[in-house]
User: Fold these one by one.
Assistant:
Number 1:
Amino acid sequence: MSFGFVGMLLKLLRGQEASMQAVGGPPTYLAVALDVSGDRGTFRSELYPEYKANRDAPPDDLFPQIERCLKLLETLGVPSYGAAGFEADDAIATIVRTLKQSHPDVLIRIVSKDKDLKQLLEPGRVELYDVHTDKVIDVETLRAESGIGPEQVVDMLTLMGDTVDNVPGVPGIGPKTAAQLIADLGDLDAVIAEVSDDDKPKKDWVIKGKRRENILAARDALPLSKELVTLRDDAPVELDLETAAVSKLRPDLLEPVLRELGFNRLKDEARELAGGSIESASSSGAAAKPKNDGGFGGLFDQVEAGEAPTAVGDYTVVRTESELGALVKQLKSAKVVALDTETTSIRAMRADLCGLSFAAKSGEAWYVPVRSPDADSHLDETTALNALRPIIEDESVPKIGHNLKYDLLVLRRAGVELRGLTDARSCDTMVASYLLDASRSSHSLDALSLAMLGRANVSIKDLIGSGKKQKTFDQVPLDQAGPYAAEDADVSLQLAERMRPQLESDGLSGLASEVEMPLVEVLAELEWNGILVERDELDRQRERLEAEITKLRASIEDEAYDKLGRGFDPDSPKQLAGILFNKAEDEDPGFGIKPLKRGKTGPSTDAEVL
């Protein structure tokens, strides 16, 4: 949802598509109307308790996505309006009324294709705009499509009712019939009068048969339905047009939010809006770099890099045995230890250890290199691990990290067992992020750092590059590798300090410590041991599936010939689109299904739209 909303908003503000230019280009002013009272907290639900009562409860991940959209609007500077007891459409109706009075020269364009809003249309003053199709719906469009004017929309909506909002209408009367009845007779009162006239001879009835009976049966409920579908324009909202001026928006502030949401594909559009300049994500000017995004490793998982990397913190590269001894002493007295591994691969079972980073206090961290371009300047792997083993393997020392399963496997491969993951003070910030908000588009260390700490981390891409010239971490100079690695441990610790109270307040601490953290060790054990594959069984399953596919293809072909008199290749998107979307009278007939989504080559046949 949030990605679609942001994409729609940026498209609207850019207004560069030819079809948008043809209908006026980008807006001069922009405001957003909100439902602030939910489905059941408005005057309509007081009038009719069954109003929207048939709707399922919203999914758990909806509200976090709404919060992200609101945060983006606030960052951008788009004002939003809503009123308790009213719906967003009522807020829009109120704004339309007041703007027509205060700014008679302003064309009001409502970004929606909602049928209820068509009652607000006015020639040369109020239009609807479908941002997905770039289609303007005005009074002429309304009359051409339905034969009625804006003043008749409420009566049409009353007759047809609304199954989505649970507004009672007349059974058997849909949009086309309702529009036709209102167009023919003028208004709802005339329709009711027509079916209520018992003295008129049957031969003179305009409305006959079952339709007449249904309208009569629903007659007493129609006044309530009309009140439910009529938009109120007296909501307590006041729009100051100048606060909604697009010229005052700040698209240069969008990049941190887009990075946090993982919407990197939209950054170019935001940059274009900002005139080619996007403000840095933090005062340090550092670019964002996820440790990982979703839990499948870490080294090469990244977002776009920006400026030269800069790590902010008291970070130390541990090179000598005396320095290592001092570190071990500090870690032994720590209440919790955050750690992170740097390796040569995103695949834990193939990764060689390059170094370990530790943090026990916010803003302070150490990096212990064991592989680097300057191996003579630091300790070797055996020496470092022998000194650190008592800390890493101590069950009584709670551990913090991001995607600890990866670190557990890397260390096990190096001969060290990572313990201390199931203490109540332990925390895997990636796991905690999923528990707190599974709907996040990215659970990477960088995305969480931006969202919760307001901090952009050093970019791995700036250190190792990309493509064919990409290096491995053991080739990164220590003056760059050290701060980068230490920052990972420090940020993990800071995130854990934020997340643990949230887990507690949300009642998720037990789930985290008793289920999820032990599961990290179980999953790591499964990955370490691998699975056995019985090839004969796989062959048997392949043969069975091939037989099912052959049978299904034959059934599809028979159905196509039976219904349309022709066959097609279901593996061909073009032929599949023809079967689905062509009309029955076309040269290559199809089922005439209305496409839900279009691409550059025609209607989409993606599974999500079928």
Number 2:
Amino acid sequence: MVVCQRISASIACLAMLLSGCELRPGANQTAEPFELSTVDMTHRLESADTIKAHMAFLADDLLEGRAAGSRGEALSALYVASTYEQLGLDPRGEGDAFIQPVPLRSAKLDLESVAFRILKGNQTDTFVNGEDIFVSGSLSETSIHATVPAVFVGHGITAPEYGLADYDSVDVRGKLVVVFGGPPAFLPSAEAAHFGSTAVKQKLAAEAGAIGLIRLWTPANEAQISFDLLKNYLSGASMTWIGPQGEVKDSAPEIKLRATIRGPAADALFANAKMSAAEVIEAGETGPVKGFPLTTSVFLALTTQHDDGLVSGNVAGFLSGSDPLLKDEVVVVTAHYDHVGICKPEGEGDRICNGALDNALGTAAMMDVARRFTVASERPRRSVLFLAVGAEEKGLLGSDYFATYPTLGEKSIVANINMDGGFPFYDFSDVIAFGAEQSTLGEMLAKAVGPMGLKVGPAPFPQQGIFTRSDQYSFVKKGIPALFLYNGFTNLAGENVGLGIWNRLLQTSYHQPSDDLSLLEDYSFAGKYAEVFYRVVREVANADTRPQWYKDSLFGAIYAPRSEKADAP
């Protein structure tokens, strides 16, 4: 599921599901009562059967959890490609194939090589990786051995329009910056999501001349996931993609030293400083905190083993539009088909994380939407690309690779609609749409689901900023309006039943072997979920006007500054 940055892609994905957005006024108006017709019920039942069949393959133990670069992931890609061919879609992978290979670099940390010390004068404090510090392997360096002075820079953000200029008062050239982990709680959700991203903080630090970045683990971080769980990812490998010319994707290669710290390590780092770690963390919960030099330095040594022999893949099936004037505009529909593989040590019973909900469900629903379009009496006006992306769990790698190297020639991508997980265990009365407040896609979604008697409801955790944490963000960064769909928490009686279900699944099944086919007995609600997916894609593909960012959208301003913008409703 979503990275999801790479303290572990899995953590980003968790944060994704604990996230949300604020909708425009009027976007969540309840539609007129809806009576299910015979045709609608037929579609829903057909979709339910189709999704059940696809999930039975994708979430089977034989695929061993579909980890990025694994045989199970490759078999899944072939299954999706075969389905596309059966449906009559055109291949849009590499050459005449459905699959676009995504070369990967695996970076595996040598656990015995890690040395992390905080130095102040003649005093040295040593910390063990996975206890009060977390250090992962380097994507670009095989060996790191350095001692660097530390500087605290608050949230590590440069955004004068929000009163944030954290690098203005300190010199960080050649130094290691210390920043709060995660999004600043005092910013609106979209802005918090963007500026709270580790990748954005690393990029801003590099632009200021820093060579290292340490994240302070805050209570807000701990509320999302326990720091103690991080040690489960120490033996795993970080990943990135390798481009056609051999370039290795790293958001900020200048940042050589990277770590996350908490508790005693944070206290040691702020020893004898202007403020203690606890004081700056408390102050940072409500507003900006001005940076200051620390009296300590950090020594970090580690060795990383690189493996450039792994390959993931994106599976691309193309449906040409019917309108001569619009068919060169493409709506890209995405779902990631990978998961986290064999996730338990030997001797611990069931070791396979099947990823039934995350994200065999989304992939199966996307393939069902493709089926619906191919059997429809009329093709959509715009073209539609159905893109099953790989290596999402390792940092949105497949979607980022495609967005960087699209296989569509001169055609223009006008929108992305993404589906990543869900819990269709009840008949829902609303739909969550992360990013709905950023572009006219939110209005298009409301129009599409209104006839189903659904409203576009608010997401349950708007403070987390999920919009940057799943595959749609790869397209957003290219200036393309996007939506991430999720079924709402409210049932037909108006009760919030989703929150309790989500909390239970988070505790028992998230990235665990129990996320398997036994969770779903009734697939009819998954069929309704797919109906939502189909209707919004059809609405966008048939609309007279392509989607536009709103004039006040942060993402439109940053990533599509020259595009025509729309007034918010």
